[in-house]
Amino acid sequence: MSVFNWRLNTLAGWMMVNIVFAILMVVLLNAAVIAFASVWARPDIVQSGLLQQMGIMLKAVEACPAAERPRMAAAISDHEEYGVHWYASRNDVPMPPSDQDATSFKEPLVEILGQRRMEAFDPHDDDPEGRSGQTHYMLAVQLKDGSWLTFDTAKRIWGVHPHTRYLVIGLFVMFSSVVVAAVASRHLSRPMRRLAAAAERFGADVKAPAIRPEGPLELRVAMRAFNEMQGRIQRFVRDRTDMLAAISHDLRAPLTRIRLRGEYIDEAEQRRKLFADVDEMRSMIDAALAFFRGDGEEEAPTRFDLAGLVQTVIDDGRDEGGEVTYAGPTRLIYEGRPIALKRAITNLLGNAMRYGGKTHVELDTDIAHVRLRILDNGPGIPESLQETVFRPFFRGESSRNRNTGGVGLGLPTARSIVRGHGGEVVLGNTAQGLAATLLLPIESART
Where's it mainly located (predicted)? Predict the structure, then answer.
């Protein structure tokens, strides 16, 4: 790659190219505006209405006595746009002799004034070398008494007021500049947005694919570094999961042997306690393995009825003897992993029924989220522990009884699943007890 190409592929080079492109586009669009304005706002002399004004002025001057005509012509002149002058003879007219008889103007003027002698002068056509010194466009018309009336213009007359003309040009320039700036900035920021989207996706899904490097050199270096970091984290998670799976497999074998040997214990009470300990250890191993593997991550996203899923979990809780009420829509289609979400909702509802007794479930949506609130009548959780309880193996209940305190993976598992969907689980105390709020992005929902 040459030094020139390398510099163009940098962020500074991209900005330079986009700015130059923007300037060129503005120039081209301005040229188009001028071309458009020349047709719309700068009509030719026939369409401009100037001939009608000339006809009125001609009649007014012709009606005056010869002595008053110079003063009348000076009075009706518009010094900003055109001048009107009266001359006693053709020799007095400061215009070179011309064979051009204003054919293009003759027909409209004949309709206004009748047949008259007319001469037109164009400094570019009739006097290209500028020998006469005359630089204005001029139209000379002979009056009935043989005198002449001239109309000269220093510039072509527009069909709109100058302020309106400047406003139109300014609006076109501003519009073209905004369009070009928007296109150029979008082109420049697209790789940045892709990198930000990849980082956000990786934060929600550790198995997200790598991003393809593109854009300026600095951004491509950042993308490659991000891909390397993402690969290292994915390998770390995979190695950790494989290690835990191996540990779980190795632990199950001695647990099975302990259970088999426990069959030879004659005392029934001791045998029961031993089997209970073995079952608890096996449950802890299975729960830990499911958590570290990210239970449900391999499940393919699909569209399902989230409201129906919530009501199914509630029905299961009622079958277990829980007192649960529901308020929300009867149908809410959502795209996600239904088995994993069912596990997360079951964990939250199970905690509410275990520690809070009577439970109320609310499902609704707002502008940004699908919101599931699970409210109980329990003692709540101190604010200082509302984030701590999401740490793996932390139990807010101090006893070691698995039936009352659990393993300490219910809330961490629920939050991990919900975050994998781009959402969040938060806890908060209410006047009645604890409120566990499950938030999911609204983009994947429809009623």
Answer: membrane
